[in-house]
Structure formats: structure tokens, C-alpha cells
């Protein structure tokens, strides 16, 4: 559960760090949004270091959680309801993440 919550926090930090420059570049919002974006991306990088497994495995498994959190963001922030295809894709991504993270130890 701790790992999953850490993955979710990591995904939120990355999404926020990318969404704020999007608001500036695509929606004409203030360039001051770049400051919290930088901080959010720094937080994202730091959160990735808190995982106990090898970095490459963490990055690969993190991708599955990122896809899921991104679709929740799509619904909650962009107000676009995910499709059945979106949900199927999340299921496949999370299955892949589970296979990577829950493999038997040697």
C-alpha cells in the first residue's frame, strides 16, 4: 500500500509539473506558473528516489500507475469522462505494473 501511495504521489507531482506549463503555453496563463511547475517536477524526481527497488524497475512499474492517475486527471480536471477503451488500457498498464513489481524474488 505504501508503494502504491508513493507511486500516486509521484504521478501527481509529474502531472502537475507538466500541466502548469501547458496552462501557460496553450491557455495564455501567467508565466509565474512555471515556478510551481519546476518545484513539482523536482518533487517528482525526489519521490522516485524513495522507492526501494532498482531504479529501472521502479520507472517501468511507475508507468502503469501514471496512466491510471492521468485518466483520473482527465476526468477530474479536464472534465472528460474516460471511455471503455481508456479503462481497458489502464487495466493492461496496471497488470503490467503488477507483473513487474510483484515478481518472485531470486
Automatic annotation (TrEMBL):
Family in the record: Belongs to the UPF0060 family.
UniProt cross-references to Pfam families, sorted A to Z: UPF0060
UniProt keyword Cell membrane, yes or no: yes
HAMAP family noted in UniProt: UPF0060
Keyword set includes Chloroplast: no
Record key words, sorted: Cell membrane, Membrane, Transmembrane, Transmembrane helix
SUPFAM superfamilies given in the database record: Multidrug resistance efflux transporter EmrE
UniProt name for this protein: YnfA family protein
Transmembrane intervals: 33-51, 58-77, 83-102
One GO cellular component, as annotated: plasma membrane
Record localization: Cell membrane
Species per Swiss-Prot/TrEMBL record: Malikia spinosa
Amino acid at each position: 500500500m505504501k508503494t502504491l501511495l508513493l507511486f500516486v504521489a509521484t504521478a501527481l507531482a509529474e502531472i502537475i509539473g507538466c500541466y502548469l506549463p501547458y496552462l501557460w503555453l496553450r491557455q495564455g496563463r501567467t508565466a509565474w506558473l512555471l515556478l510551481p511547475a519546476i518545484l513539482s517536477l523536482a518533487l517528482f524526481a525526489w519521490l522516485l528516489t524513495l522507492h526501494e527497488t532498482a531504479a529501472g524497475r521502479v520507472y517501468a512499474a511507475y508507468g502503469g500507475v501514471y496512466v491510471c492517475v492521468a485518466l483520473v486527471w482527465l476526468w477530474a480536471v479536464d472534465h472528460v469522462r474516460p471511455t471503455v477503451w481508456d479503462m481497458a488500457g489502464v487495466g493492461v498498464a496496471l497488470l503490467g505494473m503488477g507483473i513487474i513489481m510483484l515478481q518472485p524474488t531470486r
